[in-house]
Specification:
Helices cover 32% and strands 28% of the residues. It has helices spanning 2-11, 24-32, 49-56, 68-80, 120-133, 157-164, and strands spanning 39-43, 60-65, 87-91, 106-112, 134-145, 168-177, 184-192. Helix 3 links the parallel strand 1 (39-43) and strand 2 (60-65).
């Protein structure tokens, strides 16, 4: 049912989350913090805006979404942007990354609103898949709604910390509010534990 919801929103032009703008938190990570380019995975990549941004900054990027329409758009956009050779877009389930034949481990994982739409059971599988996909010392940049009355999904900062521990350490949190929905939300930077 959820797949149909997202498919329908893309078909009808109502995918308001797909803004074609890379968030300033991601720009700061790449341009201000100056992390070295490597391999990145963009989870719930939609039409590829953030994958393309990373590829334009010399990253090799795999974008994953479980709806075919935005994946087709992402491939076209990447080709037009001249970064088709640095990007690979796949239709897949973020809770089953192990079946996608990914060329990991990844140095960076980006999730802008994918994980908060998963059930608690799916979130646990998702966190386990990410732990197996990101190298020790790698970064997970995560944007997630917080729980709200009448809205399914979301996690509190403590919930995020608990979901990803002990494989990830929470480096920082930036609490805020989603401008489109007025829902409480937050950015998280988590770092993969273990020896690099």
């Amino acid at each position: 049912m959820r797949r149909f919801f997202f498919w329908w929103r893309y078909i009808t032009g109502q995918a308001r989350w797909d803004t074609n703008v890379t968030p300033p938190e991601v720009v700061d990570l790449i341009e201000r913090d100056g992390i070295e380019p490597g391999k990145a995975i963009d989870l719930g990549c939609g039409t590829g805006t953030n994958s393309i941004y990373l590829a334009q900054h010399r990253w090799q990027v795999v974008g994953i979404d479980y709806v075919a329409r935005p994946i087709r758009q992402a491939r076209r956009k990447a080709s037009r942007a001249g970064v088709g050779e640095r990007t690979r877009f796949l239709i897949g389930d973020v809770t089953q990354l192990n079946v996608l034949g990914l060329d990991g481990p990844f140095d960076l994982a980006l999730d802008i609103g994918c994980g908060h739409s998963l059930s608690a059971e799916q979130q646990a599988a998702y966190a386990a898949q990410l732990a197996g996909s990101i190298r020790p010392g790698g970064i997970l940049m995560l944007y997630m709604f917080q729980p709200m009355p009448g809205r399914a999904g979301g996690l509190t900062p403590d919930g995020v910390k608990k979901l990803f521990a002990p494989e990830f350490r929470l480096a920082w949190t930036n609490l805020g509010e989603d401008t489109a929905t007025s829902a409480p939300s937050a950015w998280y930077r988590l770092e993969r534990t273990g020896e690099a």
